[in-house]
Write a structure and sequence with these properties.
By secondary structure, the protein is α/β, with parallel strands linked by helices. It has a single domain, classed as Alpha/Beta hydrolase fold, catalytic domain (Rossmann fold, 3-Layer(aba) Sandwich). The chain is built from eleven helices and ten strands. The strands form two sheets. The chain has an eight-stranded mixed beta sheet with strand order 1-2-4-3-5-6-9-10, with helices on both faces. Strands 7-8 form a two-stranded antiparallel sheet. β1 and β2 form a beta hairpin. The termini are far apart. About 50% of the residues are buried. It comes from Pigmentiphaga kullae. GO terms for molecular function: hydrolase activity. This is Alpha-beta hydrolase superfamily lysophospholipase. It holds the Pfam family Hydrolase_4.
């Protein structure tokens, strides 16, 4: 198994009942104004540090946590139960609802360290579903939410149509094996060429350092239980981010979701040249810019 070390951050631990959950923090730079606290939420097939704190030689600003920390954000990520360094011992498939429970525990810990200021939350893929469900349950803890590679009903999704062929296999076990070829498939399934080879290999090294299998719960949920989110109950300011080539959700599915969001402080953006894993794409700096602009939007002076 590859070995990758993460540096420059602080590890934290919290509990959900008797379950230990790992959190990773990179604090805000002290030479710029404080901009808020971000909690990054990972997807189905990787833990948090490979997704949000990936170091790639020759790739400037490869770590999104570092990039935002330098701009005044206190940045956090956490491993959901069943992933990375968090506990994995329970004989369950660690589904999206369980992940939202993790975010409730993790956010409570973070709020105790940041003076209780509501969080900016970013989630990708199934992490976006977990983040949205958490925000529905705890809107008072969320200042703004960004949903990247999100899916609502799954209608028109080529990725989920293909994945559903293995649903009986996912239902029969609580974990599924992963390897380097699987990580490659994340970048080849939609539109090959959107990520460079060095980044894909570094991402694979980082993922496989922590895990050789992943829970099946999010796959089961996304293939057989959508929709899990009621847009009418997601009342916080929301950004929906869709990669141009992402096959996880159709444009029409996302637009129907977006139309029903009740808070008019909402945005929908299509990210050109992006497929699914947006922070590992060649156009990753454009993704950072889109997210940063949403999180730093000035307060409205008039609301009608």
């Amino acid at each position: 198994m590859p070995h990758v070390e993460w540096q420059g951050g602080t590890e934290h631990w919290t509990t959900k009942g008797d379950i230990r959950l790992f959190l990773w923090q990179k604090p805000a730079a002290t030479d710029v104004p404080f901009a808020g606290t971000i909690l990054f939420v990972h997807g189905s097939s990787m833990a948090s540090q490979p997704t949000f704190d990936l170091s790639v030689p020759g790739r400037p600003d490869s770590s999104v946590m570092d990039w935002f920390a330098r701009r005044g954000f206190d940045t956090w990520c956490m491993d959901n139960e069943g992933y990375g360094r968090s506990d994995k011992h329970r004989p369950i498939n660690f589904d999206i609802a369980n992940g939202a429970d993790d975010l409730a525990a993790g956010s409570q810990y973070i709020l105790a360290h940041n003076g209780g200021r509501p969080l900016f939350v970013y989630g990708i893929s199934s992490g976006a579903l977990k983040a949205a469900l958490f925000a529905q349950r705890h809107p008072e803890r969320v200042a703004r939410i960004a949903l990247d590679a999100f899916v609502w009903t799954g209608e028109g999704s080529p990725t989920l149509k293909e994945r559903a062929k293995k649903l009986p296999e996912f239902l029969a076990r609580t974990r599924r094996p992963i390897d380097r070829a699987f990580v490659h498939s994340i970048f080849n399934r939609d539109h090959p060429g959107t990520a460079d080879d060095a980044t894909v290999e570094a991402f694979a090294d980082a993922i496989l350092t922590l895990d050789d299998s992943m829970p099946t719960g999010t796959y089961v949920d996304m293939c057989s239980k959508l929709p899990l989110i009621d847009p009418r109950r997601l009342r916080v300011p929301t950004l929906v981010m869709r990669g141009e080539y992402d096959g996880i959700a159709s444009f029409d599915d996302l637009m129907r979701f977006f139309e029903q969001l009740p808070n008019m402080d909402k945005q929908f953006t299509v990210m050109s040249g992006i497929s699914h894993a947006s922070f590992q794409q060649k156009n990753y700096l454009r993704v950072y810019h889109i997210l940063h602009a949403f999180l730093t939007l000035p307060e409205a002076r008039y609301g009608g």
